[in-house]
Specification:
With about 850 residues, the protein is α/β, with parallel strands linked by helices. The chain has 33 helices and 28 strands. Strands 16-17-15-14-18-19-20-21 form an eight-stranded mixed β-sheet, sandwiched between helices. Strands 3-2-1-4-5-6-7 form a seven-stranded parallel β-sheet, with helices on both faces. Strands 24-25-23-22-26-27-28 form a seven-stranded mixed β-sheet, with helices on both faces. It is globular. Keywords: Transferase.
């Protein structure tokens, strides 16, 4: 008796689509290899007399497909439902698989989720000796992160250790690396078996309209809504519609696309054909044959790791492909195809790519045709059967870090003003140059999610439970703190609140499930984030920006409790970091060796070109008019030490304004530490836009930082030194920085001396300039590209980031864009014209730099 090749596919309902193509191809190849193919499909599948392939036995075995399951209800109810469906799946396997499979048989299960995997593991426990089980996990890792899937993987590992022939695989190198973190078994990458045979290429005549095709049903995750938007835009471009036509499969639209599709049908543009019915194999192949270009702008969140039959068919038949960058599709495009890869969800980029492919189609089509043969040589059914039957391929090598998650507890990441936010933003920007995607989850009040290039900023929001914990702890600790230290319970509450927030747990799990490494800023969320990182096999870096327990001064007991939570959180990371030697000593005394990664500065920000003279920008475009005399600048968030410093500066300004020698000096306070106000010799501006802040640095004569207390190290101090300003501060202002008084900075702890010290510094311009130069040289040691090198090293990434010249050019472009945005707000046509011209020149300069880099 020939060994059997049993294909397990609960989603095989009919002989349409990729499921049928997949099973058909594998069954034929198995028959050619001498196996007796058996296909277990859905009970709705036509009977055996319809025939999937000559010699294959079709068994209607499963009453449910892989997506059947309870969606609502409690977590416990969903868990019970998933367990029940696994049990039903196991019973169907036991009932319909041949009871005595011959030695050498293969059971190939390629449609498996959490609702089937434990049932499959249960069946495998009684699997005959000499039979191999190959489990192909084809979906994103989040499908296998749950408790049930983890239990199944542990059971597979145990069975394999006892001699059972159990093999795990995926069909994507990206996916193999991710799934490989969840199990001790080797996870191999198998080819995709249903690459189509050669289909004649279209007529290469360059002057005919090109047909851009979207294949498969209309789903939001496939970028269908964006394709409709671009099709309408192109139809409105004079002459473009004559060179481009769209044929789009629009059957069975998903809910997120249905309303858009109805609106499109009500006013269909010319040159667009919508196919409303599912296509059989012949009609589908005819549509593919008619395509000049295949559109696959699929969502990266879904298709980063997952394969796509549509993309494979496009590449294997020599059609140029437009797909999403940093996905399995773009990997396939780079390896075998031709076309364009665009940013995720970018309508403008999709339109530009279609127009570019139209212009370059002859060259692209020739390149795509050359790659098609190589693609089919890799992806074919005979190769898959040969690999599943032979020596098991080695596990996919560890993939480079592609996705990074950064968890930040405050709500100001998207609008950085505080030192913590500035540091975290510098880290995210540096990482974004080295990886495909950075996902930031910030705390604070719920805010709209933002996209900044390849940095995605999400809001966790402070849930009701989070706030209740903080209030309850405040009441419990009131006897310890009242009235002298109100609010100091918050540092402990921040460590506890998320433990009771299941919504945050679920959100964090989704983000970490797609990450290759996680950065946690502060230790507040460490108990939740560290547990999820261990579950998903993801590395964790914890950075404490200061010893937050030091802010608890009203109770020794509460301070000790906070410090213990803080130290425990830092110890949970694979890499622990702090920002100063003083903080390092505190943590080392508690047994945690935290690496000192000091607060950095972004030198390019201090050196980048402004789009106009700073006083003109401030006065004409932001309505900020300042006196012509010397400006002493302080910048601070609403952190209590900054609020106290701002109040001290107002008193110093009052005393200086009464003095003849310093009457022309203005002390300027910027930030949330003080509301807007004006007094003689003093002005508080509140929060100002980034470009305005850059201008204030350029016109200031002295930075003043009269901090009485603080922890970590002061980023504002380094930033002022990088801006080539002499800095006058207390010793606290230079905490963590080994400066020499009178050489790199002016240091004076007695604020009573400042009203006389400030005029003296401003008058001795030569000395102030020398201190400013030495301070700038000191700050250059802390550029973020070098300071953050240990973070990149932990990820196996090279140090660096963009070159200084390129970074300055990009920052200058951002400044131009901010000024243009302001001009549009004020409807200043002349400024809009100036900005547009400068932006165009800057783009030309950056393009020249890119060409020079090769």
């Amino acid at each position: 008796m020939n060994p059997a090749y049993c294909i397990i596919d609960p989603n095989l309902r009919d002989f349409l689509g990729h499921h049928a193509s997949y099973d058909h191809a594998v069954a034929r190849a198995a028959a050619r290899a001498g196996y007796a193919p058996v296909v277990l499909g859905h009970v709705a599948m036509p009977g055996a007399e319809a025939g999937l392939v000559d010699g294959a036995r079709l068994v209607p075995a499963f009453a449910e497909d892989i997506w059947a399951g309870r969606q609502g209800g409690s977590r416990l109810a969903r868990l019970a439902d998933t367990l029940r469906r696994n049990q039903v799946f196991r019973q169907a396997l036991a009932r319909h698989l041949p009871p005595a499979l011959p030695a050498g048989s293969i059971v190939f299960a390629h449609m498996i989720t959490e609702r089937q995997i434990l049932g499959l593991a249960g069946w495998a426990a009684g699997m005959p000796r000499g039979v191999r089980l190959v489990v192909l996990l084809r979906y994103q890792p989040s499908f296998y992160h749950g408790a049930i899937a983890r239990r199944a993987l542990r059971r597979f590992e145990g069975l394999a250790a006892r001699g059972a022939d159990i093999r795990l695989a995926t069909d994507s190198d990206r996916l193999s690396a991710r799934i490989g973190r969840l199990t001790r078994l080797a996870v191999a990458t198998l080819p995709i078996p249903h690459a189509p045979a050669e289909i004649p290429l279209p007529d290469p005549a360059p002057d005919r309209p090109l047909t851009f095709v979207s294949l498969g049903n209309a789903r939001g995750e496939k970028g269908f809504a964006e394709i409709l938007t671009v099709a309408r835009r192109i139809a409105a471009i004079p002459g473009a519609a004559q060179g481009i036509r769209f044929v789009l499969q629009a059957n069975d639209p998903s809910e997120d696309v249905a309303s858009v599709l109805r609106g499109f049908r009500s006013r269909p543009p010319p040159g667009v054909t919508l196919l409303d019915k599912a296509l059989d194999h012949a009609a589908y192949e005819a549509l593919l044959a008619s395509a000049d270009v295949v559109l696959a702008p699929y969502r990266r969140e879904i298709y980063e790791d997952r394969t796509s039959g549509v993309a494979l068919e496009a590449i294997a038949t020599g059609r140029p492909l437009i797909c999403t960058r940093a996905t399995w599709l773009s990997d396939l495009l780079d390896r075998h195809g031709a076309g364009r890869a665009i940013p995720d969800g970018d309508v403008e980029a999709l339109q530009d790519a279609i127009m570019a492919v139209r212009a370059e189609w002859t060259t692209l089509a020739a390149s795509a045709a050359r790659g098609a043969t190589a693609c089919r040589a890799v992806h074919n059914a005979d190769a898959l059967v040969r690999l599943t039957a032979g020596p098991w391929p080695a596990a996919t090598a560890t993939m480079p870090v592609r996705n990074v998650a950064l968890f930040y507890p405050w709500g100001d990441f998207a609008d950085p003003r505080s030192g913590a936010s500035l540091r975290s933003n510098m880290l995210a920007n540096l990482l974004s140059e080295a990886v495909e995607e950075v996902t930031v989850v910030q705390g604070g009040d719920p805010t709209p999610w933002l996209r900044r290039g390849n940095i995605h900023i999400q809001s966790s929001g402070d849930r009701i439970r989070h706030r209740l914990v903080r209030r309850a702890l405040g009441l419990l600790t009131m006897p310890l703190l009242w009235p002298r230290a109100r609010g100091q319970h918050l540092m402990l509450a921040m460590h506890l609140a998320r433990l009771l927030d299941p919504d945050f747990h679920a959100h964090a799990a989704r983000v970490i499930g797609r990450a290759d490494h996680v950065f946690l800023e502060y230790t507040f969320w460490a108990p939740v984030i560290a547990r999820l990182c261990r579950r998903h096999g993801v590395g964790l870096t914890v950075t404490d920006h200061d010893v937050v327990a030091n802010q608890v001064t009203g109770s020794r007991l509460l301070r000790e409790m906070t410090l213990r939570m803080e130290v425990a959180g830092l110890a949970r990371g694979n890499q622990a970091a702090c920002v100063s030697e003083a903080d390092h000593a505190v943590f080392a005394a508690r047994g945690v060796a935290a690496e000192v990664i000091p607060n950095p500065v972004r030198l390019a920000l201090a050196d980048c070109r402004l789009p106009a003279p700073p006083r003109r920008i401030l006065a004409e475009y932001y309505g900020i008019t300042l006196p012509q005399g010397p400006i002493c600048l302080f910048i601070g968030s609403n952190f209590p030490p900054n609020v106290t410093a701002a109040e001290a500066l107002r008193g110093i300004a009052r005393e200086m304004a009464a003095s003849e020698e310093s009457r022309e000096v203005t002390i300027l306070v910027v930030g949330r530490c003080m509301e807007r106000q004006t007094a003689p010799g003093f002005q508080a501006l509140g929060v100002v836009p980034d470009l305005a802040l850059r201008c204030l640095y350029r016109i200031a004569s002295l930075a003043v930082i009269p901090l009485r207390n603080g922890t970590g190290s002061s980023l504002k101090t380094l930033e002022a030194m990088a801006e080539r300003l002499p800095v006058l501060g207390t010793r606290v202002a230079f905490r963590g920085l080994e400066v020499t008084p009178g050489q790199e900075a002016f240091i004076e702890d007695e604020l009573e001396a400042w009203p006389h010290l400030i005029p003296g510094i401003l008058e001795a311009r030569g000395r102030a300039e020398a201190v400013a130069r030495a301070g700038r040289a000191f700050a250059e040691r802390f550029d973020h590209r070098s300071s953050f090198a240990p973070y990149l090293a932990a990820l196996g990434l090279p140090p660096g980031g963009p070159g200084l010249a390129r970074e300055m050019a990009l920052l200058a472009a951002q400044a131009e864009a901010q000024l243009l945005e302001r001009a549009m707000e004020t409807r200043d046509l002349e400024l809009m014209r100036e900005c547009s011209e400068r932006i165009l020149r800057g783009a030309q300069e950056r393009a020249g730099m890119a060409l020079a880099r090769g």
